[in-house]
UniProtKB/TrEMBL annotation:
Belongs to the catalase family. Heme binds at Y384. This is catalase. Residues 1-46 are annotated as: Disordered. It holds the Pfam family Catalase-rel. PANTHER family: CATALASE. Residues 54-438 form the Catalase core domain. Residues 1-10 have a biased composition (Basic and acidic residues). Its cofactor is heme. InterPro entries: Catalase (IPR018028), Catalase_3 (IPR040333), Catalase_AS (IPR024708), Catalase_clade1/3 (IPR024711), Catalase_core (IPR011614), Catalase_immune_responsive (IPR010582), Catalase_sf (IPR020835). The keyword Metal-binding applies. Keywords: Heme, Hydrogen peroxide, Iron, Metal-binding, Oxidoreductase, Peroxidase. The active site is at H101, N174.
Length: 550
């Protein structure tokens, strides 16, 4: 037996407390000839002290092999405190998974400013060239559950948490510059459509494509997901985007609209369906392994940050809706401006503690970075923090990976899981006579002019240009890329009902005749039959079921 197994506790030399023990293990692991221990045997050889099993209250566990019973074959006794505690805690180890983005990987890193953008924003994270800020990144698939394969055709989440001196700034984005929707009222429906069918408990191409084809504004995102870029080779080989329009506020209290881009320095690399299927057959955690292994080897991945800046007044002049999440800003109009670079250089010591419990929220903003009238963003400002209160609790920001690195005086007190001094004996109200909880009007933003009636406006009446931007994207593709788009679409549609396939062909044809013809051919159909099928489409009465274009 190893010394870990047979060593008895010396009462004159008690075990270190849990926190010190963890620090000792981590220190020994990091100092052990430059290598990480593969298991506790290796850790012990590197000089880690033995740990001694206790109950949650610190009391020693005498026997972890045999339950307390009445005789060798008798029933278990209720007074077996360790068995009761062990089973009860085990039953509660799993917290609710994220409704979307459940499967993910993460790492710590450093953001460095490489260019001066202080004329656009007063955010201190960007205050000087060369400034460094600690950060955490999480990448994910979107539709799949915790056990989903990494290499599925799907959007990838791209979320960054910057621990700035003014508070945590969360950039909660994706690896695509657009999204399926303009209006968040349909967001729950989208998630249900791409999740499991309530009857079969299987993913349904019919449900998925029925919903997508009834939102013609989704074609831009659908085209990206069905293109070569629908399956990144790894998290290291994809770009990231804010997707939403945000705002910058500068020292003169001027507002600029902004979109953020994070361009991989490893180069864009993608997988075909066949390549992804072969990888999934061997490894369902391929992207997680790739990111973890690269960082462990010192091959730290990097992304360059750029922004597109639009003067506030331009929003009223551009021919497209600047706050529409289904559209991009042409780079010819608003070119990329370099900001900085982030590097991921440290793997979490514990996946659950950091990757599973990290909570990103678009509402986590700092002075100089703010919101816009983007409808989807407006809804996410509320929805994300609401979801985190359900998943992690009201004191989620006390979890180390979520905790700001600056002083926090929110006067949010008590609640389940509260730790720390809970703001001690300070008065728990404001205003008060003791100079506590003073507001900070110096960080006020400029007023945003809104002079409209409140109503449920049909956004299609405001802007029904669903296809010009996906058409421009299609025109950028070469023949090989277009064929991949057609083939990937046909494979993804699978056994979806024919009238849904015909509807998608009509949408593609309205975007570009070659797009419609290519998808139709890949599906073994024709554009002519798709046009005729409009008359029998069961959703024909819906405004979003577009009539065919010749």
């Amino acid at each position: 037996m190893s010394s870990i197994e047979d060593k008895k506790q010396d009462p004159t030399n008690p075990a270190k407390p849990d926190g010190e023990m963890i620090d000792a293990l981590n220190k020994a692991a990091k100092e052990g000839a430059g290598e990480q221990p593969n298991d506790m045997q290796d850790a012990h050889k590197m000089g880690c002290p033995a740990t001694h099993l206790t109950r949650a209250n610190g009391a020693p566990v005498v026997d972890n092999q045999n339950s307390l019973t009445a005789g060798p074959r008798g029933p278990i006794l209720l007074q077996d405190l360790w068995l009761n505690e062990k089973l009860a805690d085990f039953a509660r180890e799993v917290i609710p998974e994220r409704r979307m983005h459940a499967k993910g990987s993460g790492a710590f890193g450093t953001f460095t400013v490489t260019a001066d953008i202080t004329k656009y924003t007063r955010a201190k994270i960007f205050s000087e060239v060369g400034k460094k800020t600690e950060m955490f990144a999480r990448f994910s698939t979107v539709a799949g559950e915790r056990g989903a394969a990494d290499d599925e055709r799907d959007i990838r989440g791209f979320s960054l948490k910057f621990y700035t001196e003014e508070g945590n700034w969360d950039m909660v984005g994706n690896n695509t510059p657009v999204f399926f929707l303009r209006d968040p009222l349909k967001f729950p429906d989208l998630n249900k459509a791409v999740k499991r069918d309530p009857r079969t408990n299987m993913r349904s191409p019919t449900n998925n494509w029925d919903f997508w084809t009834l939102l013609p504004e989704a074609l831009h995102q659908v085209t990206i997901v069905m293109s070569d870029r629908g399956i990144p080779k790894s998290y290291r080989h994809m770009h990231g985007f804010s997707s939403h329009t945000y705002s910058f506020i500068n020292a003169d209290n001027e507002r600029f609209w902004v979109k953020m881009h994070f361009r991989t320095q490893q180069g864009i690399e993608n997988l075909t369906d066949a390549e992804a299927e072969a990888i999934i057959a061997k490894d369902r955690e391929s992207n997680q392994k790739d990111l973890y292994d690269a960082i462990e080897k010192g091959d730290f991945p990097k992304w360059k940050m750029y922004v597109q800046i639009m003067p506030e007044a331009d929003a009223e002049k551009v021919p497209y809706h600047p706050f529409d999440l289904t559209k991009v800003w042409p780079k010819g109009d608003y070119p990329l401006i370099e900001v900085g670079e982030f590097e991921l250089n440290r793997n979490p010591d514990n996946y659950f503690l950091d990757v599973e419990q990290v909570a990103f929220a678009p509402s986590n903003l700092v002075p100089g970075i703010s919101v816009s009238p983007d409808k989807m963003l407006q809804a996410r400002l509320v929805n994300y923090t609401d979801a985190q209160r359900y998943r992690l609790g009201v004191n989620r920001n006390q979890i180390p990976v979520n905790a700001p690195r600056c002083p926090v005086y929110s006067n949010h007190r008590d609640g389940q899981g509260r730790v720390g001094n809970n703001y001690g004996s300070r008065p728990h109200y404001e205003p008060n006579s003791f100079n506590q909880w003073q507001e900070q009007p110096q960080f006020a933003e400029p007023p945003l002019k809104i002079d409209q009636y409140a109503d449920r406006f049909d956004f299609r009446e405001d802007d029904s240009d669903y296809f010009s931007q996906p058409r421009a994207l299609f025109n950028l593709m070469n023949a090989e890329q277009k064929q991949a788009l057609f083939d990937n679409t046909a494979a993804a549609m699978g056994d979806a009902l024919d009238f849904i396939k015909y509807r998608h062909i009509r949408n593609c044809h309205a975007c570009h005749s070659d797009y419609g013809v290519g998808v139709a051919k890949a599906l073994g159909m024709t554009v002519e039959d798709a046009i005729k099928a409009y008359e029998t489409d069961p959703a024909k009465h819906l405004e979003s079921c577009l009539p065919p274009k010749a």
